Amino acid sequence: MRMLRFVLAVVLFSLVGPATAGETVKVGALLSVSGPASFLGTPEARTLEMLVEKANAAGGINGIKIELLIKDTGGSPEKAVSLAKQLIEENQVFAIIGPSTSGESMQVKRLAEESGTLLLSCAAAEVIVQPVGKWVFKSPQSDSHAVIRIFERVKKLGLTKVGLLTSNTGFGQAGKAQLEKLAPTYGLTVVASEVYDKAATDLTAEVTKMKASGAQALVNWSIEPAQSIVLKNARQIGLTIPLFQSHGFGNVGYVKAAGAAAEGVIFPAGRLLVAESLPDSNPQKKLLVEYKRGYEARYKEDVSTFGGHAYDAFLMLQAGLKGGGTNRQKARDAIESIHGMAGTAGVFNMSATDHCGLTPDAFEMLTVKDGRFQVLK
């Protein structure tokens, strides 16, 4: 019965359509504001609240104001699906921003495609947009691009043996697949690969296996607080090889949690974390600095790349409304036609075959020095 109501609502919505120009459109946001992924969802929610408030105060986007409906998924794919149905069926939203995590996004993707609802995911796994779905886009850089930048650095260091640690999440699984797939391309041998629970509080056993494997570099791939535990446990057992993290390390909170163990860690990230050190000629700098200063002044906390994912999703929504108004098909086409749009993650160039629109160059390789992020030399 619930599925029947969902289908009927979709059909009705496709006939009636969203609000006409000059009115207010409803935009849903599926974000992990609470739970283990709150470090993703909280800055995303705050960023969207800030951007929507600013846009509406300026008269809207081409006169179209936004009613933002934030739903807290708690990081649960099951809850994300239930809330997505609610947003589509009951609230009849024009678009959905989020979910925060890859596992949630993969579950909600089907609903977006079936209902013809724009889904602007804030999660990184490229399986979200591969194969390309008509209505689904994502704002973070792709995991394969992060792997490429990491392996380029490993090769530059003259190393050939790598150990892999990945979390048992959608993000971790997708990263593991890309790491193992691309290693041979860079002349690297994976000598050990361990999967750990996302809620792990001690990873001594796993890093000990890495040490025993003869790995010359360790790559950890997760978005959870366990990232910091990996660093602490690795240093506690005397593991001195280079430690790499995924782009999920882009929150200074992880550095603080790891303390001295975070010093020297290497990871790919968007340029938001080093915005003010960029040359003025960089096409992203103005936007990055404005976002960073505005966010930190308002919320009294460091900006993170995760909030930036929501910022970029909002830029996509804005491009859709500017190019297609409240006609959802035209708005979708406008998003797919984005070219040269500077965002927090990079400069976006979308196409019918690329619903992320970023290249490996969107990443900057960063390291931690004195508890802060800086560009790796």
Please outline the helices and strands.
Elements: H1 2-16, E1 24-31, H2 38-57, E2 65-72, H3 77-90, E3 95-97, H4 102-115, E4 118-121, E5 136-138, H5 143-156, E6 161-167, H6 170-182, E7 189-196, H7 204-213, E8 217-221, H8 226-236, E9 243-245, H9 252-258, E10 266-269, H10 285-299, H11 305-324, H12 328-336, E11 339-342, E12 347-349, E13 364-369, E14 372-375
Parallel strand pairs: 1-2, 1-3, 3-4, 4-5, 6-7, 6-8, 8-9
Antiparallel strand pairs: 10-13, 11-12, 13-14
Helix pairs in contact: 1-3, 2-11, 3-4, 5-6, 8-9, 11-12
What can you see in these coordinates?
The protein is α/β, with parallel strands linked by helices and 377 residues long. The chain has two domains: 2-14 and 24-141 and 288-362, Rossmann fold (3-Layer(aba) Sandwich), CATH 3.40.50; 143-269, Rossmann fold. Helices cover 43% and strands 19% of the residues. It has twelve helices and 14 strands. It has a five-stranded parallel sheet with strand order 2-1-3-4-5, with helices on both faces. A four-stranded parallel sheet has the order 7-6-8-9, sandwiched between helices. It has a three-stranded antiparallel sheet with strand order 10-13-14. Helix 1 crosses helix 3 (77-90). Mean pLDDT is 93; it is low at 1-21.
